[in-house]
Specification:
The protein is of the alpha/beta class. The chain contains nine helices and eleven strands.
């Protein structure tokens, strides 16, 4: 876990990491790094080892080879891929936010601020099983923010969100990165949207197939082979300006000043 001469901006890294589970090689010779204020996105097909890599970086999975580094004292906010809450169990959003979070971080004021930051302050007393998919993901993000993280790790943060809300959720993540200065490691399947919202892409299929700036990766032969020429050629990576956004229900809202947005 130790890195004797880390870059002062480096938050976490993996160096030539391999993971074997029950004799099956899940990851082989994988390296990555995430620095302050950087968004790094892992893409790849199902079964590529994306979640396993994230869990290894977090220290939840022990690699069979290679080295991991996390900055000493690093505060991490983690948004896992799946959430299952028994629909027969009454649980408000407020109660959910307090679960498993140290009391000093989960006070009423902290919870309200986190919900307001992700745009769902109005649902704090709603039952978790009654809110929409987009609202669930924002609540999950708010929970990750309660720890005041230096490093946000988001595994499929827009799953269960319809297409009209995906771009706004990624824009929210980008704005959190900007306002808080956090580093973000993200797993995503939503190539058309996320490729324009990330600084660096790692294309994974048990090993790193290609890595770099989104525009470079989208033209890489292994990326094209993995996702198909039609998908690769249709990914939009150009700057444009927004004069509106969608709320968590997908309704269009006008922006007073617009948003200068790379998307």
């Amino acid at each position: 876990m130790n890195n004797p001469n880390p870059d002062k901006n480096l938050l976490a890294s993996a160096e030539n990491v391999g993971v074997s589970i029950s004799g099956n090689q899940i990851l082989l010779d994988v390296s990555l790094s995430v620095s302050e204020g950087e968004v790094v996105t892992i893409v790849g097909p199902n079964g590529a080892g994306k979640t396993t890599l994230v869990r290894a970086v977090l220290g939840l999975v022990r690699p069979s080879e290679g080295k991991l580094y996390r900055r000493p004292g690093l505060s991490i906010g983690y948004m896992p891929q799946k959430l299952h809450i028994d629909p027969t169990m009454p649980m408000t959003v407020n109660r959910f936010l307090a679960l498993g979070v140290p009391a000093k971080l989960a006070g009423q004021g902290h919870r309200k601020n986190a919900l307001d930051e992700v745009g769902v302050g109005h649902i704090s007393n709603s039952q978790m099983h009654n809110i929409s998919g987009g609202e669930v993901q924002r609540v999950m993000l708010a929970r990750a923010l309660l720890r005041d993280p230096d490093f946000l790790v988001l595994d499929e943060p827009v799953q269960g969100v319809d297409i009209t809300g995906q771009a706004d959720l990624y824009r929210l993540i980008r704005n959190i990165r900007k306002s808080r200065g956090v580093g973000v490691l993200m797993v995503s399947h939503d190539l058309h949207v996320v490729m324009a919202e990330t600084d660096r892409v790692i294309c994974l299929n048990r090993h790193v197939c290609c890595e770099g700036h989104p525009e470079t990766v989208s033209k890489h032969p292994e990326f094209v082979q993995m996702f198909g020429e039609q998908v690769a050629s249709s990914i939009a990576l150009y700057p444009h300006h927004h004069d509106h956004h969608h709320n968590v229900h997908g309704d269009v809202c006008n922006d007073t000043h617009g948003d200068n947005h790379d998307g």
